[in-house]
């Protein structure tokens, strides 16, 4: 009998379901919530309500697309945390009830670990150990990945995540949420050397992104006073220069981590891994440092259930099954 895992993701503003059959991702259905655009950020209560609307149709679609009935499922994998509590509750309660009703195991998945395990969806997968720069809206980490279940955070942000620096920077430029992909888009034909922003530094492999936002804010205030319409006129150059600074800060620590650990298998994961500028810079570094570089497909960078189903598959094989009284609170240790 084939082993089939249903993966469910609802930690922030994407409701997603995916079917994994014998270790292969069959589909990855995602409903993105556009309702937050007008508010300039994710509104937790609205996110939770949207998940409630989407969860049944999305799971139904994933099952139908894979041509299976829910009774054929072997286990259900779901994001347990970290994330927005109201959003997590929708996906996790649904997953738990369905698993209970079908009498099959529930598999708890740590959202950030799943971003890393997205590297096992497509071939070639990295060999162990590898370093993963995990960059999203809530996290910025360098993780030493020793095995599918053994991961160690060796560097992380002390304040804002880099995705937040993208989104808040974009907001200062008057762009809608989420601004990361828009900065990426406008930066493509901008001059990254046109403006400079100060890079903050912290010791070791940690990051700090709170200062650069303030640097952008003061810069925009000063220039707008001197020249009305400054932002619109120079948007592409501002985006390119701001993005270049964020990328510099990320790759500096990644190179340091690779030299320190002597690991040249390097991967990136999380929403910001979709950034074209970051991907290009890493490809250059691959040549300079002789790295084996792993960059996931775009659909597996931002939040998706494919990565949850893949993590679930590995936990299922390892017998890493949740207890029915586990809490959905985002308190999972990494
Ligand atoms: O992993 P993700 O989808 O959700 C979290 O787990 O947080 O990451 C979302 C973050 C947002 O900050 C978004 O602006 C950023 O990833 N992002 C990007 C790009 N695509 C998504 N940032 C820069 N360039 C992109 N192309
Ligand atoms: Zn994420």
The main sheet comes to: 5 strands, mixed
What is the level-2 CATH architecture name of the largest domain? 2-Layer Sandwich
Terminal-residue CA separation: 33 Å
Assign the CATH class of the largest domain: Alpha Beta
- CATH superfamily (homologous) name of the largest domain: ATPase, nucleotide binding domain
Order of helices and strands: EEEHEHEHEEEHHHHEHEH
Total count of helical runs of at least 4 residues = 9
Relative strand content? 15-25%
Q: What share of the residues lie within helices?
A: 40-55%
What is the compact description of this entry?
This protein is an alpha/beta fold and 334 residues long. It folds into 2 domains: 4-116 and 301-318, ATPase, nucleotide binding domain (Nucleotidyltransferase, domain 5); 124-295, ATPase, nucleotide binding domain (Nucleotidyltransferase, domain 5, 2-Layer Sandwich).
């Amino acid at each position: 009998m084939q082993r089939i895992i249903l993966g469910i993701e609802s930690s922030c503003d994407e409701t997603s379901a995916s079917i994994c059959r014998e270790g292969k991702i069959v589909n990855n259905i995602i409903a993105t919530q556009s309702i937050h655009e007008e508010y300039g950020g994710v509104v937790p209560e609205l996110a939770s309500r949207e998940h409630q609307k989407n969860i049944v149709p999305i799971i139904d679609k994933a099952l139908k697309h894979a041509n299976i009935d829910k009774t054929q499922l072997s286990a259900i994998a779901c994001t347990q945390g970290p994330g927005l509590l109201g959003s997590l509750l929708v996906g996790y309660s649904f997953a738990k009830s369905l698993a209970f009703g079908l009498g099959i195991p529930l598999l708890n998945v740590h959202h950030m670990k799943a971003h890393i395990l997205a590297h096992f969806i497509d071939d070639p997968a990295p060999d162990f150990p590898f370093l993963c720069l995990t960059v999203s809206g809530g996290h910025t980490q360098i993780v030493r990945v020793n095995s599918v279940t053994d991961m160690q955070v060796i560097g992380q942000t002390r304040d804002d995540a880099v995705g937040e620096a993208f989104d808040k920077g974009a907001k200062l430029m008057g762009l809608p949420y989420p601004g990361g992909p828009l900065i990426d888009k406008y930066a493509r034909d901008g001059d990254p050397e046109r403006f400079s922003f100060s890079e903050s530094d912290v010791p070791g492999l940690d990051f700090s992104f709170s200062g650069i936002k303030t640097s952008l804010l003061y810069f925009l205030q000063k220039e707008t006073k001197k020249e009305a319409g400054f932002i619109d006129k120079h948007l592409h150059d501002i985006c390119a220069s701001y993005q270049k600074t964020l990328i510099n800060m990320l790759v500096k620590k990644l190179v340091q981590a690779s030299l320190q650990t002597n690991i040249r298998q390097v991967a990136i994961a999380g929403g910001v891994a979709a950034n074209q500028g970051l991907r290009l810079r890493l490809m250059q570094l691959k040549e300079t440092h002789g790295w084996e570089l792993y960059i996931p497909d775009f659909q597996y960078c931002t939040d998706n259930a494919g990565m949850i189903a893949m993590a679930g598959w590995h936990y299922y094989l390892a017998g890493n099954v949740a207890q029915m009284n586990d809490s959905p609170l985002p308190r999972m240790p990494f």
